[in-house]
Design goal:
Structural class: mainly alpha
Order of helices and strands: HHHEEHEHHHHHHHHHH
Mean pLDDT: 87
Distance between the termini: 63 Å
């Protein structure tokens, strides 16, 4: 009802105010971003397959569809061009120039097919090279087989990561559980972890020689300092009420760590180690270049020297396959060891 004494204009609703009232629509717009919900098994499988299939399809398209890229021409018949040979790859502009020159001179023009650079082989060539590298004897006199190179690299990774974990895991747990020790050690660890591990290569060769010692040391340096900080942070995430209850019941020092802290953090510690093992693999190539070349790095550099880039891609794919298979196996073991941990599901 209008208030007595109020102006008539104040008691009437203005047209623009009436139009500003919210209007309900029939359907709500669906947001792509929201509360994360678990995907169905079928969708997870399809997306996982697509994550590998899409890059392979793009690679195949660039390799097999001539008009997509193919900046070179592979000579099949050199014609009257003296400097060309069958199998040679030349830029399209240079090839077209020689064709025009031969036509003007009434000579035999060169013939070729579109081609990509030698450093981008087609998928089928890489697949064939992968099979040959794993099964056949190398054609080069000083070459070694890919399986032997890979096995040597795996040994470097295992020894480096084990040595890092023997010290890094206990120190990380102690730093997370004891603030005084953390303050004493973590500042220098934070400082050193920003130093590139390969920068210590020459020093490690001087101390440990030119063989596998410095390579293992680079893996240790690349993972140890990160390992301490990651595990210390995992330890600090344990519920304080759990530790207080254990202290009330009489747990102290090593017994507290062994019976309460370690069991509480074990699933996350296991995941941390899986991630850190992947970091160790990323340092492998640089580590194996230090001192005498060995392992799968020696295989890659040797094949690149001969311009056998299909073998180079094959070796790189083997590293990815071994790393992925290792991670999947560790994830499967984690689900069996910690069935109560939903994040391992």
């Amino acid at each position: 009802m209008p208030v007595a004494g109020a102006p008539a204009e104040a008691t009437r609703a203005r047209p623009e105010q009436a139009m500003a009232a919210p209007v309900r629509t029939g359907a709500r717009r669906r947001s792509w971003i929201g509360v994360a919900r678990p995907l169905s098994t079928r969708r997870r499988t399809v997306l996982a397959v697509l994550s590998f299939l899409l890059p392979v399809l793009a690679w195949a398209a660039v390799s097999y569809v001539p008009f997509l890229w193919h900046p070179l021409v592979e000579v099949t018949e050199p014609g009257d061009v003296a400097w060309m040979e069958p199998g040679m790859r030349v830029p399209k502009a240079a090839f077209a120039e020689e064709v025009a020159r031969a036509g003007a001179a009434n000579g035999a023009a060169p013939v070729g097919i579109p081609a990509n650079p030698v450093y981008l082989p087609a998928p089928h060539a890489v697949a064939a090279a992968l099979w040959t590298s794993l099964t056949a004897t190398p054609t080069q006199r000083d070459a070694i087989r890919l399986p032997l190179s890979l096995w040597h690299s795996i040994q470097i990774i295992v020894w480096g990561f084990l040595l890092s974990s023997v010290v890094g895991v206990p120190l990380g747990i102690l730093c997370g559980a004891q603030p005084t020790l953390a303050r004493l050690t973590e500042p220098v660890i934070e400082f050193v972890r920003y130093m590139p591990a390969p920068a210590f290569g020459a020093l490690m060769v001087a101390i440990l020689g030119i063989y596998d010692g410095p390579k293992i040391a680079i893996i240790v340096i690349g993972t140890f300092f990160q390992q301490v900080l990651v595990i210390a942070n995992t330890t600090r995430r344990i519920e304080a009420l759990l530790i207080e209850a254990a202290l009330t019941l009489g747990a102290r020092n090593l017994r507290l760590i062994r019976r309460v802290i370690v069991p509480a953090m074990l699933p996350q510690l296991y995941r941390d180690q899986r991630i850190l093992l992947g970091w160790a693999w990323t340092y492998l190539i640089v580590a194996e270049l230090i001192g005498t070349s060995s392992g799968i790095t020696f295989f890659i550099t040797q094949q690149a020297r001969y311009q056998h880039f299909d073998n180079v891609y094959a070796a790189i794919l083997v590293i990815g396959l071994v790393g992925s298979a290792t991670d999947l196996a560790l994830a499967w073991i984690g689900r069996r060891l910690f069935p109560y941990d939903r994040s391992e599901a």
